[in-house]
Amino acid sequence: MDAALGNNHSQAVWKHLENIADPELPAVSLVDLGIVHRVETEENRVKVELLPTFIGCPALSVIADVVARELRSLDGVESVDVQFVYDTLWTSERLTERGKLALKRYGIAPPSLAQPVCPYCDSVETELTSRFGPAPCRMVAYCHHCQQPFEVFKTL
């Protein structure tokens, strides 16, 4: 067993995944976004199962490539298998509190069943202006208080 991975390979991989940013939302790690479903380690091999936020997400291949490259950089890891699984659906409830805060700091309102809260001024004087945003997982809203448009992460 490699000393760099320590006694618990899986824990070391999870810790490393916490530092890998989502390519479309660089303020949020893949772990905080809640798309890391399962990590399996065996000797020098790592298997990571990811949940896409949307099946048609255009960044899936980029995410898989980044995860594989980053995990291969760990000492003792020779083989990385990254798979997207579809039998478990990603939901916005998988976002961690740290992930929601990172979205807000990035200017994107975290998902909410209530009126979207403006990430800039915390006002609820907002309106949804389009259910279609720059990515399938986001919508566009407008804050009447600070007069700023902003994105809202969809609630699923």
From TrEMBL:
Residues 117-154 form the PaaD zinc beta ribbon domain. PANTHER family: 1,2-PHENYLACETYL-COA EPOXIDASE, SUBUNIT D-RELATED (PTHR42831:SF3), FE-S PROTEIN MATURATION AUXILIARY FACTOR YITW (PTHR42831). Gene3D superfamilies: Fe-S cluster assembly (FSCA) (3.30.300.130). Residues 11-82 form the MIP18 family-like domain. SUPFAM superfamilies: Fe-S cluster assembly (FSCA) domain-like (SSF117916). It comes from Alicyclobacillus tolerans. This is Ring-1,2-phenylacetyl-CoA epoxidase subunit PaaD. Pfam families: FeS_assembly_P, Zn_ribbon_PaaD. InterPro entries: Fe-S_Maturation_MIP18, FSCA_dom_sf, MIP18-like, PaaD-like, Zn_ribbon_PaaD.
